[in-house]
Amino acid sequence: MSQTTAPRNPSEKVRGAEKMARIRVEFEQPTTRIPKPDWIRVRIPHTDNIGKLKDVLRANKLHTVCEEASCPNLPECFGKGTATFMIMGDKCTRRCTFCDVGHGRPDPLDVNEPQHLAQTVAAMGLNYVVITSVDRDDLRDGGASHFAACIRETRLANPNIKIEILVPDFRGRMHPALSQLAHALPDVFNHNIETVPRLYKAARPGSDYQASLTLLKTFKDEFPHVPTKSGIMLGLGETFEEVIAVLHDLKTHRIDRVTLGQYLQPSQHHIPVSRYVTPDEFKTLAEIGTKLGFSHVASGPLVRSSYHADKQDAGDIVC
Hints:
Blueprint: H1 16-21, H2 49-59, E1 63-64, H3 65-68, H4 74-79, E2 84-87, H5 113-124, E3 128-133, H6 144-157, E4 162-166, H7 174-181, E5 188-190, H8 200-203, H9 209-222, E6 228-234, H10 240-252, E7 257-262, H11 279-292, E8 296-299, H12 309-314
Parallel strand pairs: 2-3, 3-4, 4-5, 5-6, 6-7, 7-8
Antiparallel strand pairs: 1-2
Helix pairs in contact: 5-6, 6-7, 10-11
């Protein structure tokens, strides 16, 4: 007698193989893995801050992109008591092949999350915070009003705080989204372009290269005093010339700051690493970005969009 499998609960969070199996995008996994080079090193600090910070986050029902996206810099950042907060839950409505954040039907918004976030930021004594989110294509404004509420509550509890937001593309709801953010502007507006346009179908199914550029430029046109920022992953199969073309596009669309880092495959089921970019090439790209006129370029193997964001804001580092 054959057994039937019960249909999956759409609200269940899936990751890894199950998440990737549902993507209508094909990419070949190499028969042998490219070994990580010596310059990809993550030092794990000897501190109990990591456990303490996780306890604080769970107590306030908060998530971090550091944990959900398996960021290689988590030990360093958590060890120093810093984190990039991920609002609106831990289930994304999209299935990007480079990302380890879980997929599933999102839960309803937690109306108390803005206040919990503000209290946590105050308890941690932060003076710079990055707020990001999962994609929430189920919401009419893509979650922009929730971003605005988080900004307002965080500033109310932390008057001297600087707030950077790393937003999704709001999928065609740009104007409703920006109208919400107009009432609670961040100090830095960040949206990652992620990769070159040729690789969007494989790496960012459901996203659009030009739409992301337009979102960044439209925000800058409406709020010219707020710095705009974007990030690019390297090692997905792009060419050096394609990266330069993206930098030109970002500059043309009035982006002020840019980050470039090495893509690291979260699991064997995600899109594979095509190559590890050398530190010298990252340095060359930083020099090119500076010559193009970006106010700040952070470029290095372990650079991430929100890694050392406070120092990026102060212009302290160019990797």
